[in-house]
Amino acid sequence: MKMRILPLVGLLTFAAVFAAVSLPGAASSAAADAGSITVQGTASVAAVPDRAELSFGVESQGQTAKAALAANAAEMRRVIAAVKAAGGVDVKTQSVSLSPRYGEHNAVQAFVATNSVAAMIREIAKAGALIDAAVNAGANQVYGPSLTSGDQDDLYRDALKGAVADARASAQALGSASDLSLGRITAIVEGGGSAPQPYAADKAMEAGSTPIEPGTQQVTASVSVTFAVS
Which partner for 100 in 23, 90, 108, 145 could form a disulfide, CB atoms 3.0-4.6 Å apart? Predict the structure, then answer.
């Protein structure tokens, strides 16, 4: 039995060695297929904001909680009506509060009621007039504006396209410096984008109203891209 097994083992060993010697291209081909370059790409798109979100509040005071809340409600109704008349949309209540105001010896001097609403103005040139209308109607608190562009999704997709182009340019530079030929994209990962950032002021509001400068904002996107190389 031993004399029959030993030749068989020898044949198997010989076959394995022969295969390794005869097929060197298989290993080099696999290594070439695994070659890649991974680069980062970033791009920004500039846009002028075309809408603004503001918050308007009314703070009222009364000798009793009921009196303070009633006075606040009446004033806030006038403010809401004025905001809507001035072009404010998506008007929604943000907060309502009622609390005592203390004086010396921790005695209650009065009660304070507050109410605030947020509103969007889609014609940013009228944002200043909206503020004026709210204040004239009784608002004594104003916050904002938060400036945005209505086509944020389209702007971000344009920035993504630019980020991929930026990544390709970097990969081509690396490939050229390394004497490698750039191939197809094998993987791409969205790196996320940044919220619109103020860039430069270039457009003023209507004359006579509270001045609001929309400026220019940058929408940024980044990607990580892997290219095959050979």
Answer: 108
Backbone angles phi, psi at 94, to 5 degrees: -100, -45
Distance separating alpha carbons of residues 56 and 114, to the nearest angstrom: 11
- Of 38, 37, 42, 34, which is closest to residue 178 (Cα–Cα)? 37
| Alpha-carbon gap, residue 229 to 42, rounded angstroms | 22
> Worst-scoring range by mean pLDDT, 4-8, 45-49, 133-137, 140-144?
4-8
**Looking at residue 69, what DSSP letter applies?**
H
Helix locations, the chain, DSSP H: 2-22, 24-33, 65-85, 127-136, 152-177
b/e per residue 3-24 (b: at least 16 CB within 10 A)? eeeeeeeeeeeeeeeeeeeeee
- Angstrom distance (rounded) from CA 92 to CA 119: 7
Q: What pTM, to 2 d.p., does this model score?
A: 0.64
Task: Indicate the residue type of 106.
Answer: N
| The one-letter amino acid at 169 | A
